[in-house]
Amino acid sequence: MKSRIMIAIMIFLLLPIAGYAEETSSIDRLDQLSDEALQMVKLHRYEDAKKLLDYFSDQFRATSGQVSILTSDEMRILTVSHDEAVQATANATINHNEKINRVTKFRLVMDAISSQNQPLWTEMEAPIMTVFGEMKEAVYNGDKEHFQSKFNTFLSLYDVIYPSMKINVTGERIQRLDTRIDYIDRYRPQVLADEGTQQELEALEADLQLLFDEMSDDEADPSLWWVIISTGSIIILTLSYVGWRKYKGDQQKEKNRSRGQK
Question: What is the DSSP letter of 142?
């Protein structure tokens, strides 16, 4: 009877892990589909990309009951980025680079949802910070035309990672970045001569660099900690049960020995 109770307890403890694995598996499959769609766009196979995106939608609906780890904000961001990707692959008037940008945006969103630890959008650090440095150099060289060009490039790159950033970064931090970027954009005609706008430029660069640095730090996957804690509980419970059985067995032996001596 006690052994049956022990087995039931162990099964109960294992159920959350099994459920989490099922959800993770569903997310991973969807993540793979988003990557395959992006690869098709890079190869100019837009029709195949759209088929994969449509299939993604079907699979997402089929597993929506299992994928319960998504928040309402994540659902909204994912839906919007997916719709933009579908429109890009279906619209012949959209150029190749814009198609890649929109499907990349969707790909990064899906990855940000499936992998909280060092998401793919952090790999955009090099191009974004390089363009930002060139933008600053143009300001201090008094090259207005070059600044305008580099700032537009920066905005395009930032737009690609923005939805996925909103999944992994706090709303307060996103708001601070938005405020700085909006300020520079609003006063861009005067940026070469206005010291205040230049200070905002420096502050924005520092905020972005700090964000990328923090996101690149190695951190333990929260799901791994859950597995460790759950598995550890099972091991401790099992060892406790084995120890209890051994203790009861020793007690019974001692009683039998006492009876034999009488």
Answer: T
